[in-house]
Amino acid sequence: MVEVVAVVAIALLVAAVVGTLVPLVPGGLLSLSGLVLYWWGSGFTEPGTVAFVVLAALALLTLSIEFFGGSIAARAGGASWTTTGVAAVVAILLMIVTGPIGFLVGLFGTVFVLEIVQNDDITGSARSAVYATVGVLASTAVQVLLTVSVLLGFLVSAFLF
């Protein structure tokens, strides 16, 4: 039974790394699920409590970045919350039809157009659109690094010590 739990937990942790590259797949939640499953399956002994808390905190940080990273970047570039919300919906719809490129184009284009309509400022609109798009890409990179860290930290703490 323990071996099955370990295989499923590792599969969830690997899926978390892959999932961070796919929009709408909650990599942080998959990481946390794998950790909790294994910890529960081991009788709350492996990985140790300190390692579990640190790895769970990294998984929660990943989840937070996934949900808020792009929005925070768009706001830093000057976009309104309304623009950010509409851009997220449009980007997701385009991603379903055209894939990741559609997501990025939809995000950039929506922020740009809505900010021009609201502020009549091409430079500011372009800045907001670039911030939003780069923010989503940077958020994805950070999520990949965090989920890989959780996976490696789990493997080391659960199987080498």
Automatic annotation (TrEMBL):
Keywords of the record: Membrane, Transmembrane, Transmembrane helix
Domain of life, source organism: Archaea
Transmembrane segments: 6-39, 51-74, 86-117, 129-160
Pfam families: DUF456 (PF04306)
Family matches, as InterPro entries: DUF456
Name recorded for this polypeptide: DUF456 domain-containing protein
